[in-house]
Amino acid sequence: MTSVVQRFRLDLPDLRDAPAAFLRDHAERLGGITRWRAGREVVAVLVLLVLDVFPGLIGGYTELPAWAVAVMAVGYTALYLLRLLFPAVALLAATWVVFSAEHGGIALVIMLAYAAGYRVVPWQRALLTAVLALALHILAWDVSTPGLSGPFGSWVMLTVYGMVVALPFLVGRYAAQRHALVAALQEREEREVRERRMVSRQVRLRERNRIAQDMHDSLGHRLSLISVHAGALALDTGLGERQREAVQVLRSAALTAMEELRGVIGVLRRTEEPEEDHVRGTVDAIDELVEGARRAGVRAGLVRGGQPVPLPAKVSHAAYRIAQEGLTNASKHAPGAGVRVTVKYEPDALVVEVRNDPPPVRRPKGAGFGLVGLGERVRLAGGMLHVGELPAGGFRIAAVLPYEDTAAAGDEPADEPAEDLVEPARPAGIRKWAGVGSILLAGVVVVVVVGGYTWIGSQPVTKVVDRELFDSIEVGQSQAEVVARLPGGAEPPLGDVRSDAAPEPAGAECRYLVADEQSYSSQATRIVRFCFAGGKLVEKNTHLQGM
Length: 547
Hints:
The protein is of the alpha+beta class. Among the domains are: 37-193, no CATH class; 283-423, Heat Shock Protein 90 (2-Layer Sandwich), CATH 3.30.565; 464-546, Beta-lactamase Inhibitory Protein, Chain:B, domain 1 (2-Layer Sandwich), CATH 3.30.1450.10. Helix content is 56%, strand content 12%. The chain contains 16 helices and 9 strands. It has helices at residues 2-8, 18-31, 35-52, 66-82, 87-99, 106-119, 123-144, 150-234, 241-269, 286-295, 313-333, 369-380, 415-421, 436-458, 467-472, 479-485, and strands spanning 300-305, 339-345, 349-356, 384-389, 395-402, 464-465, 509-515, 524-533, 536-546. The strands form 2 sheets. The protein has a 5-stranded mixed sheet, covered by helices on one side. Strands 6-7-8-9 form a 4-stranded mixed sheet. The protein is rod-shaped, with a radius of gyration of 41 Å.
C-alpha cells in the first residue's frame, strides 16, 4: 500500500534549490540553441499569426481594428514563447484567453497543448494540467457561448476540448515518451560499446602483465645468472688480458640487457591512460574536493573526526577516490539532494563515507563501472567497500582502509564482489510500453468524438416547417388550429434556439421549429417562431441561429 501511495504522490521540488536549479537548467538549454531551432521557432510564430491573427484562416473572429490585431499578435506570440519556460501555465492562460472571447486562437491552443504534453514530464503534473485546462474551458465556454447549452451544448464543449486540447496534449506526451525511449536505447547501446571496450582493454592489460611477469621471472633470472657468472669468471687468475676484457664486455652487456628489460616490463605494465596524480589526490585534498562540489551547486558537507595518522600513498589516494566517486554519483543520479562526506580516523582503520539524501527527482541508475573500479582500488589498498541504498531512500558508499601498506589477497580480483557492487539491472517492463497509454487515450478521444457526431448526424429530423406551411398560417388563427397543422417528430439537437431571436411578445407562449430551407454558407440555422396569446396566434417570425 505504501508503494502505491508513493507512486501517486506528487514529486515536489525543494523550494530552497528550485530557483537556482530552474535558472541553471534553462541557461544550459539557452546555450544549446542552434540556428535550426531558432529558425523553427520563427516559422512556427509566422504560421501561428497567419492561422489565428492575420488573415486568421481558422480564426473565425469578427473584424477588429488594427491596434487590436497588433495586440492580439503580440499576446499570442508571448504565450507561444512562454511555453519554453512554463508550458503548463502557457496552456492554461491560452485556454482562458482563446475560449472566453470571440477571436482566433485555435492554432495557438493546439500548439501549446502539444508543447505541454511534451514538456511536462511527471504524469501527476500532466494530469493536473489537463484537469485545470478542462475547468477553465468549461468556465470560458459559459462566458463566450451562453446560448449553446443543454446536452448538445455540453457535447460540443467536450468535443472542442477533446480535439483542440486533449488530443494534441496526448500526442505530445506520446512523442516525449517515445523520444525518451529512443534516448534510453541509444544510451544503452553506447554503454554496451563502452563495456566491450573496457573488457577488451582489461584483457590486453592482463595479457601485458602476464608477459611482463614471464619476462621478469624467466628472462630476468637468466640474465642475472649470466651477469653473476661473468663477474665470477672475471676474478679467475688464469685468464689472459684479452679473455678478461671479453668477460667484462659480456658482464656489461648482461647488465645493460637487464636495465632494458626493466624498461620493457615497465612499458608493458603501464596502463593505456596516465596514472592519476597521487600526490594531489590524497586524503588531505578531500576538503578541496568538497569545496569544488559546493561551487558546482551541490549541497555538500564534510565531517572529519579522530586524530590524523600518516597513511600509505595508495590508502590515502583510495580515500580521495571514494569521496570523489561519491560526490560524482550524487550529482549525477541524485541532483538537488544533500551530500555528506565523512572522514574518520578510528583506532585501527580509516573510515571514509559518502551518503546522500533522497533526491527530489529520481534519475536512472548508471552501469556501475565507477563503483567496480572503486572496489578494485579499495581491494588493492587492503580495505573493504560497502555500497547500497539507505532505508530512508538515500545512497551510501563507505570504506574501511588500513593504516598499514597491506598487500591485496591475490593478483586477480574475484568475480563475485564485483557483482555485489552493482545492483543487477532489472528489466524495466514499463519501458517497452512507453507511450502506449497516451496513444490509446488519444484514440479513445477520436473514436468518441467521431462516433458521437456520427450518431447525431444519423438522427432523423422531422420537426421542420416548409415555406408553403409557413405562408399559409396567418396571424389571428386559433392556437388549436395552428398547433394541429404544425409537424410533430424529433427536434434537431441544436441546443438553445432562442438566443439570437427577437424578444418574445409580452405574455406570449412561443414555439420554435427548424425551417425546411437552409443556407449553410451563412454558418447559421434558420428558425421559425410561432407565438400564442389568448388562444390565438399573435406573431410568426424567422431568425438565423448561430452555430
